[in-house]
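Handout for the seminar on molecular recognition.
Each group receives one record of this type.
Step one: identify the two inputs.
Step two: read the structure output and locate the region that could contact zinc ion.
Step three: write two sentences on what you found, then compare them with the reference statements printed after the record.
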Amino acid sequence: ATFDLVIRQARAATASDVFETDIGIRGGRIVQLGQGLAQGQAEIDARGRTVTPGGVDAHCHLDQPMEAPARMADDFRTGTRSAAAGGTTTVIPFAAQAKGESLRAAVVDYHARSEGRAVIDYAFHLIVSDPTPEVLATELPALIGEGYTSFKVYMTYDDLKLDDGQILDVLDVARTHGALAMLHAENADCIEWLTRRLEAAGRTAPRFHAHARPMLVEREATHRAIALSQLVDVPILIVHVSGKEAVEQIRWARAHGLPVFAETCPQYLFLTAEDLGIDDSYHGAKCICSPPPRGKENQQVIWDGLADGLFTVFSSDHAPFKFDAPEGKKPGGAEVPFRHIPNGIPGLETRLPLLYSEGVLGGRITLQKFVELTATNPAKAYGLHPRKGTIAIGSDADLVIWDEHEHVVRNAALHHAVDYTPYEGMVLQAWPALTLSRGEVVWDGRQVVGREGRGRFLPCGQPTLLPKR
Ligand code: URP
Ligand code: ZN
Ligand code: ZN
Ligand code: ZN
């Protein structure tokens, strides 16, 4: 037969269109679109169902080495199984350089962690934490050329943060070599100063994490990141934008014609600072992430930014730590001051269903905008488009068939290795009925059926959101 698989009468969505079509698949790729395609070796009836490109989760942390005793709950096996069950077909986690280590060593280590484990395709961002002359002149340019075309830099966290001069240095490499820099924007000194004051006053419960990282510290660093990128004349992408004041800075940059891209995440739409605790309960540790979820009024600001184009990408920032575990939110088995609680919340599997249900079916964003934010733009931003992130002839047959039904989020039904979800009990209106990766079913609506190790490493091309160099 001409096709290995034909998906019949899909209501297919791209970032620009929604159209009824059959999807003809051969050799893992989409080879024909249109009505009345010839018989395939296999057939899937999608009549009445929406079909979107598989999600590209461009910000997630899997098996990233941590300072002891912390250890991430998800490796490439559990993390990618969880992603597939939630409709994501490409993940881009981080190969993090440790201070004193070479970037190359981080990449080699990360390939060893991922090789033979993933059920869906993956690429890597780099994290540059030690921009030595060797890294700047040789290693980073070489790695960009080999398909690691994006890297994250931190303005906070002692083990990762760069000072402004170092950030200028790495931005200059991004400019020369056509890479995209992702910035974590929070003012480290302000956070340290506030944390000490809170500790001196005995305010160490999880909820005070949000007090130590108010929106002001994000706003200031966001503005500084914009200024640094303007000084070097290079585009940047600001990750995990949490609320109004940071959004205002990005709007200001855009109004001045600056190429500043931005990402936000489900936690800023669905959680608030109150989820870190309204009293000193340790359960608030489950929702400790940075930047923290904000006051309720910020959720609408984030929705507005998704709808009106302020945000370019919507990622999970999946940073998986168990709650009730010595390697998780209770270091060494104890309830500890918030400073010592590993930062991050799980969200790989729930990212797409949350946005599809509350955004698309809730009437807040169009289906095309959903596709743009969750698949097309992340693929473009990180040099994977048009292979990933769209429904087009020649693209990988990475697809999600949606089933619209009432679906209650239960951690017991998720596939990550974390012992909780912040969205427990939330009633959604849809969940993927089927996830296809390169034409193979990896999630059948009940089980992850993708084989461990079938996922391939994807070297990234030049980010196509950037001007050609
Ligand atoms: O709290 C978070 N977001 N942890 C993950 C690391 C990061 O900064 O993205
Ligand atoms: Zn970050
Ligand atoms: Zn992150
Ligand atoms: Zn369901």
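Reference statements: The longest helix spans residues 215-232. The two ends are 43 Å apart (CA to CA).
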